Structures are given as structure tokens and as C-alpha cells.
Fold these 3 entries.
Entry 1:
Amino acid sequence: MTDSVSQKIKSIAQEIPQDVRLIAITKQVSVERMREAYSTGVRDFGENRLQEALTKRELLQDLDDINWHFIGHIQKNKAKKVIENFDWIHSLDSLALAQRLNRLAIELKRMPKVFLQVKVLPDPNKYGWEVTNLLQDLEQLNLCQQLDIQGLMTILPLGLSSAETLAAFQKTQKLATTIQQKNYSNLKMQELSMGMSGDYLLAIQAGATMIRLGRIIFGERH
């Protein structure tokens, strides 16, 4: 018999430090199973498809202390809805998107917490800044004062060894420190969103403050 959602969460909770936030990634996961995760203490839920997320928000509105995290690529026409409905945005992946979200946040009188998505290793299949480009854009990003820029997010390429994975996470952590030392008023760099079901322990070793776990809690998606 496979472990239940709550058993899996309890088992993971024993492995991770108390100051690391577990975000349950609930793409294609039923509301019933999300409620089971909630009953085990999970309060952070991550979605990457806007329409699916909005439906779930509606069905879970009785659980009013959920923190909703958006982790998918944000299309221009969906940016407003993302700002309206999510407390955290992990997938801010370009200066143009930052400036757009900043304008919308001013209009909507919202101040979302955001991560800058960075590619510390080349990966044509991922969105995000390459390191050099991100460093060039910092000054402009700092002007986006309606965005609460919390830190960096990364998703690593597939097929890395454990040593390569750890090194990439450490590179992300060092980049956050480098940015912090530049003392921009709005680039806090206090949070690191990195690590998924296959590599979260390595991410924690490298300083992750948030890990994004889906498959290891809910099983394979179809």
C-alpha cells in the first residue's frame, strides 16, 4: 500500500529544517488531496496554470490562511489575474515582465512578493535571466518599487549529477549574496526558492529557504 499524502508530508517534514518552507505543488492534484495536505499543516500551495488555480481558489475559499504561489510562466494577458490572486510569484523571468507587473500592482494596490527566476546553467527549455543579464538589469528592477523582490528562484536542467546539482544551487546562493552586497533598497535577497522532488535535500544544503514539492507528495501526474 502506498503512503497517504499526510504520511508523505510528515515524513518529509522530519527531513527538513523548520525554517524551510514546503510549497506543495498541486498541478493536476484534486481539491480533496489538497485538503488532506492542508490538514497535515501545509499552508503554501503552488500552481502553474492560472485557470486551474482560480477554480481551486474558489473551491478552497473556506481555508482562508492558504498562501498561494504562482510558479508558471506568466503570459502578458494573464498578468493582471496573477497579481490579483497570488501572494507569491516565483516566476518573474524578465525585466519587461517586472515592469508590467509593477504597473499592474500600482493600479491594483497590491504588493506581491516575487522571485527573480535565474538560469545559473544554460537551458534553452527554461525561462529566466542568465546571470550576466540579470546583473545588468538590477538597477531597473530596483525601480519596480511596487514589487516586493524577495530573492532568487531557479529550476535546474535535467540530467545533472548530484555534485553538479549542488554546485548549481550553491552558485544561485552566491549570486543572491552578490546582489545583496550591492545594497539596492528593493532587492532583499532573503529568500531562495530552489529544489524540487528529486533534489530538495541538495537545495537545502545550499541554502534554500523554500522548496517546491509535487511528485514526492502527490505521486506522478498524468
Entry 2:
Amino acid sequence: MEDRIFIIIDGNNFYHRLKEVEIKNLLDFDYEKFSQFLSGKRELVLKKYYIGAIREETNNPKSRQLMSAQQKLLGKLKKNNWALGLGELLKTDKYHEKGVDVLMAVDLLIGAYENTYDTVILVTSDTDLLPAIEKVRSMNKKIEYIGFSHKPSLALIANSDIRRLLIKDELETFFIK
């Protein structure tokens, strides 16, 4: 039987790791090429991008600009058949995502219980998912951790079956020239 793949991208985490290696203009990132790279010859059954939805704030042109950029990204993803997991973006002294980790954990668990995938490819460095990951692995599902060489998650490396750390040169190949 062919390995069925579920790709999970933690959008906020992904954005910040790319920014740290000075990769700009994320609207030019080719998520299709990236998903093909991650899944290889295996059967891709679901690919899902998770992010806190930006809402426009009154008298804040920056929020309108950010919301517009996010809407362009989400439209591009939808056009390429990505499912979206939208949490909330709340502002206190700074912005905080709410509900995104829970959405990822729930999808990990539901997919394992309903046997919709064999391997989940996690593009995140968020250790809040460890309890869900442990349960998924106990159900004989594989966790493939995709991290970043400049900032790997040792906890996710230790709690995954397959791991790959991406370097800047690799990531740059996924940008539409």
C-alpha cells in the first residue's frame, strides 16, 4: 500500500522562520512545488495551511495592508487546493494567534482516528503539538518533521519518525522567479 501523506504547514511559524533567513516576499513562494517536494512519490491526500486570520482595525492602514496581503496568500492557496485552518489574531501589546495549535492538533488526531493518512508532514517548530503527536504515533502513524537548520526544534526531532532540516539555499528554490 502506498504511503498516504497529510501536509500541515503552521503559517505563522513558517513565515517567521523564512524571515529569519532573510527570505522576503512570501507571496512568491511556490507552495505547490514545496508540497510536491515534501510528498515525493507518495500519495498526497490532504495539504492544509494554518494561520491566524488578520482583521482590519479601525484607523489602522497597516492592518488593512496586512489583511490584503494575507487574503492574496489565502486565495493563492485555495486556488491550488490547499485546505485552510483559520484561527484568530488578537492584539494586546502585540499580536497573538489563538486557536491555530488546537486546529492542527484536532486535525492530526481526527486524521489518525479516521485513518485518512499514514504519515503527517509537519512544517512547524511548535512543541505545543507534542501531546497530539505522541497519541498519533501510538496509533502507528508516522510524523515527519520539517524544520529549519538555523532554528531546529529538538523536541520535534526527538518525537518524529523522519526529520528534515531545510537550509536557505533549498528554500530559495521554491520562489517563483
Entry 3:
Amino acid sequence: MTSQTQTALVTGANRGIGKEICRQLLQQGWRVVACTRNQQAGAVAIDELREDTGADAQQLILRRLDVTSATDAASLSRWLHDCGFALQALINNAGVFLESAAAGNDDPLQVEITTVLQTFNSNSLGPLRMIQALVGNMPSGGRIVNVSSGMGQLSDMGDNYLAYRMSKTALNALTVIMARRLQEQHISVNACCPGWVQTDLGGADAERTVAQGADTIVWLAAAKEALATGGFYRDRKRIDW
């Protein structure tokens, strides 16, 4: 570990795409701050990642974080400052999918408002809290990647799962707004759709592995070449909003 090591912070890092993002960044030599709401599940994931990648306690660091908590976000910012970590990449991966076809609340006429509010609090306001709290820890050239979904595309909108779809559309709007706001600070902000991935959320029948799902996210965060800001990507290509 050298003073030139780049630092990335990943939310929702204990499983699925988040865990794989951490793995790929570690393999590229990054220091990774892996943030999880469940400390116990996070500890298990960290042990597995350290065993798989050979990362030590300085290269892979576990922090407890609930993205719905402004207090947690502020505490994380203070901790980064106290550690002297400049944050080259912030990956807003944590999110929820609370609607269920089996329960009937995939119907926009039936979904509970509380479900919509809880989904927005995690999927849309969570990334907003993180950006507001942590952008002060990011130097010029930093990158923010918001893990979105094609289900939030206005150009290809469906008629079910209202809470999740709306939350991801709002996340896309946040991406564009912050990209413009942070452009003068030379901090890029992009969104990425990982596709239908074999995770607890996507299920075993999904068409993509977690490695494929994480690839574009890691590319947006870690590519050596300069990338545009304010875009929506899948498979390393821009897609329609």
C-alpha cells in the first residue's frame, strides 16, 4: 500500500453486485471502503473478499453504513477525513426492491405509499445523502457512479413496480443535476444499468453474472482514460434516459 493508492467507497458491499465491485477494484489495486448496513453480513463478505483477493486490512476496510441515515453519512465523512483518505470514487450501489408480484403490490394502483416512500429513501435519497456528505472528501478528477436500472428509463417505461421504477428515474435525474453542479470541480457523475444480474434480487434465471453486471460500474469508476459526465451507461456504452 502506497500513498498513491486510490480509494473507492462502495455502498451495499456485502453481497451481489456490490461485493463484486469491491472484488474487481481490489484486483486493480484500489483501496476499498466497503460499506454495509448489516455489520455481521459485511464481516463475512470482507473475510471472503480478503481470502479471494489477498487484500489486507489496509486495502479492504469495512464500515457500517445505513444510507437512509444522514448521521451515518456525516460520520463516514469525518472518518475519511481523520484517516486522510481522499475519495477518488464513490459508488452508490445500495438499494432496495420492496414490491412483490406475489403480494400484488407490483400494481401501481395497489402499491402502498409507505412502500414508495421507503424505496425512495434508499434508492434516491440515499445516494443524495452520500454525495452531499462525501463530495468534500473528493479531489478534482473524482468520480461518482450511481447504480441505476433500465427500469427507470423514461424511454422504455413499464406499467408495474412503480416505486422501484420511479426511484431509479429520480436517481437518473440526480445524476444529471449533480453532473452539472460538480462539473467545475472536475468531478464526474454517471449512472449505470448493470442489466438483469444473477443476484438475490435478479434471481438464478437472470442472463448476466455478477462479474458482467459490475464491469461497467467499475469501468466508470476506475478507467484510466477521461470519461464524459452526466451519462447513463450499459455495457460501457451510453443509453437513452
